[in-house]
Specification:
406 residues, Molybdenum Cofactor Biosythetic Enzyme, Chain A, Molybdopterin biosynthesis moea protein, domain 2, Molybdopterin biosynthesis moeA protein, domain 3, 4 domains, six-stranded mixed sheet
Amino acid sequence: MTHSEPAPSWERALHIVLQVALVKEVETMDITTAVGRVLSSPVIATSDFPPFNRSSVDGYAVKSADVASTHILLRIMGTITAGAVPKAEIQAGQCMKIMTGATMPFGADAVIPAEDVEVRGVDIDVGNPVESGNGCTFQGAEYRKGAEVITAGTRIGASEIGLMAEMGIQQIQVHKAPTVAMIVTGDELVEPWVNPRSGQIRNSNAYSLLTLFRQMGVSPHYLGICPDSLPALSEKILSGMQDDLVVVVGGSAKGDKDYLREAIDGLGMETLIDGARFKPGGTLVFARRKTCLVVGLPGPPGAMRTAFHLLVHPLLRKMMGSRNPTPAAYSGIFKGSFTKPEGIEFFLAVKANFVNDKFVLEQTKGKSPESWKSWKSDDALVRIPQEVMEVKDGDQLTFYFTHPYV
């Protein structure tokens, strides 16, 4: 069992985790099945967009030079609907009625919204001057053929898929998702469908964590509940080591029945982190053997999820090819007061609300930070430095969102 250094800070632990994470190889996927994956190469525009000058409002296509002053009369020469191709060119003193998304007629360089004109039989009365480009989008205004429109390292979501569909792109190059095996330990645990006996509780950690993985685009292999036994835990970990990452929930503390360190040692793994200097969640273990990584997370739900968001989420993002796997830091104003444990960095779960152009950070009242009810309300972690003992109403603090898809 090898220790590279004393218990690290969160930033140092994150550095260690990301340093050993191996980016997965590339595969080709259909855009409709690539949700959550990360682009391995940039997406290049296959054509201009829009592919033609088009109206962005329902109105009248005009020559802007014709409406440089007030109350100009223009003759309506026809109607252009979306999908139709204009056959006539607008001449001086003319206009054409046009629908949103329709192709602009030749000669026209602006569209006046229908509500801004007065129709007088076959003419319109334009009350105010209109500039070129008003109410329309010119060809290539959004992007030109050959331009890079989505950078490598971007996580694929709905907007990226829509943009690629717009360009006619059907298949893309993405990094493979890492394979993850998950184990939950504890003699007191039973699965949700089992009626607990005295002293037993239902296994909620596994199903929360499985969901967090899936929200990232990772399909975990759940290896079930492992009893508090060194041989059983060693066997479970060994069975998961064909995957890129083995996540063990529970057994990472130093109690009489916490066997994770002994199991890692017995399997000949190199321990890179044996506890970190932050709370909650600092009683974690991080080890590796060849290309397989093992993360031991604490069993209490709040500690487990804090450690997941601070270390496991960035680890998986790096493996999936993200160029910026480190959690994005934001600044917000704290509401209320909180006294943290002495001499250690602390991450406080809060609700981040955007109010009057700034984030307001509020701790969930009357609920244990270890409860799922609290985590249901909270969506961020406030970072309280080691040297700070108390945060007060109005303090400006750094925080990190806990959405696993961010």
